[in-house]
Amino acid sequence: MSGYNFAYLDEQTKRMIRRAILKAVAIPGYQVPFGSREMPLSYGWGTGGVQVTAAVIGPDDVLKVIDQGADDTTNAVSIRRFFARTTGVATTRRTDEATLIQTRHRIPETPLREGQIVVFQVPIPEPLRWLEPHEAETRKMHALEEYGIMHVRLYEDITLHGRVATSYDYPVRVNGRYVMRPSPIPKFDNPKLDRSPALLLFGAGREKRIYAVPPYTSVRSLDFEDHPFTIEAWEQACGLCGSRESFLDEVIVDDKGGRLFVCSDTDHCERRREGAR
Amino acid sequence: MTERALLTVRGLSKRYGDRVGCLDVGFNLWPGEVLGVVGESGSGKTTVLHCLSGRLEPTSGSTEFLQRDGSVVDILRLPEVARRRLARTDWALVQQNPRDGLRMGVSAGANVGERIMAVGARHYGQIRGQALDWLSQVEIPRERIDDLPGTFSGGMQQRLQIARCLVTRPRLVFMDEPTGGLDVSVQARLLDLLRSLVADLGLSAIVVTHDLAVTRLLAHRLLVMRGGEVVESGLTDQVLDDPQHPYTQLLVSSVLQP
Fold this sequence. Notes:
The structure holds two protein chains of two kinds.
Chain A: H1 11-26, E1 32-33, H2 47-56, E2 62-67, H3 74-87, E3 90-91, E4 100-104, E5 117-121, H4 135-143, H5 148-161, E6 172-174, E7 178-180, H6 190-193, E8 199-204, E9 209-213, E10 219-221, E11 248-252, E12 259-263, H7 266-276
Parallel strand pairs in A: 2-3, 2-4, 4-5, 5-8
Antiparallel strand pairs in A: 1-9, 6-7, 6-10, 8-9, 11-12
Chain B: E1 7-16, E2 19-29, E3 34-38, H1 45-52, E4 60-66, E5 72-74, H2 80-89, E6 91-94, H3 98-101, H4 108-118, H5 124-137, H6 154-166, E7 172-176, H7 184-201, E8 204-209, H8 212-218, E9 221-226, E10 229-235, H9 236-241, H10 246-253
Parallel strand pairs in B: 3-8, 3-9, 6-7, 7-8
Antiparallel strand pairs in B: 1-2, 1-4, 4-5, 9-10
Helix pairs in contact in B: 4-5, 4-6, 5-6
């Protein structure tokens, strides 16, 4: 596409973002500030993820973009088309074919492999923000590993609901050091972060932060000894492919209260139905 | 073994440009002792407290603290990590307004549990058990453990703040006007509670107040401050019953006798 540089951003900006990414990979879970740019989409639509993707994408990459697990939602379609037009790279819906996956709110069900990069869109990167409004103070708390208040939050959850009711963006400890928000993925996906063979990059455009989990890094979800971390489970199987292992969305199908549980990962669901045929 | 002072303060000064916050304040605080700091508004009491508790950086002076392991550290030269750790474990600060010292957005139990979680407790049942224990020690009904502090009365909030501070068994408690803003009967109960807690736990405390009645009940020794300087010090009864410095005489005679 003429008139634009490869992947929309200019080379200087990409270099600046790559430097931030390198630093983030070197210090797993640490939030690296970067000079976030104005992007041709509004904040909250994945400006952070788009910039990280633009900085790491190459002509040989195969790109997959998902939103809530689906490849065909507005956000996923427009970001995929954006990169198809500004880079000309191949795009795919298949997790196993992709080398670069930008995601909002899910990690694909198909196991990730070495060499893949997953880019997460992050609305609020600071895990301590809930109890500490001051940025200077939260940075100091990260530096001094003062993470006691994260458990105050879990304590409140158990007290109010009898269990930890936080079900998405569930805080984790990376490499035994930094506490990190894994972006608003369901806690169902938290175990997939642990020792993942793929490189996981997180970009927050409005908050101007990048952080990363390098391959095979330990990621532990915070919990209490007597209230260990658990993930969601469903009584139903997927109404389309019959999967009992994947994350299910509840869909209202008519005006009579009829409902259907289906895989949120559309690619995973389609592969399973094709395989059954 | 000769007993050593828990806190040794020498030549503590805080200047704001030309103005003086406090000037050349020095004293020893012994284990189990309660020291009262009195004086009128603006006399530098709170400045001294903030300098000691690490919330303000003094211009000059030294503050030596006797740690649990028997070693002595200079608080003002301690790295920030160690100072913040001390502030979470061995020290506690009871603020005048409980809303400054409490997290108003989380339940009473979480407020009390925060300091134990900050030092590494990760067992929900045990944290809750300790919180319940401390609530009953400060005479808050056990069934209020899951209520927000905002639903508590002023006196209960102050007692909750005290429970929150004492749960890690600190050895030194800083109190800034602990009974300020409470009515007299609640004040009396709170003072009674503080006195028995201090005695039972063998706490050392520095109590800043303008209320001489509070010091009479709580403090073993007194520092009288005026214009940033200590004008008189001695045993509480001695200072209050036989004041030597003109300002102390004025202060003592200003107390209304009902």
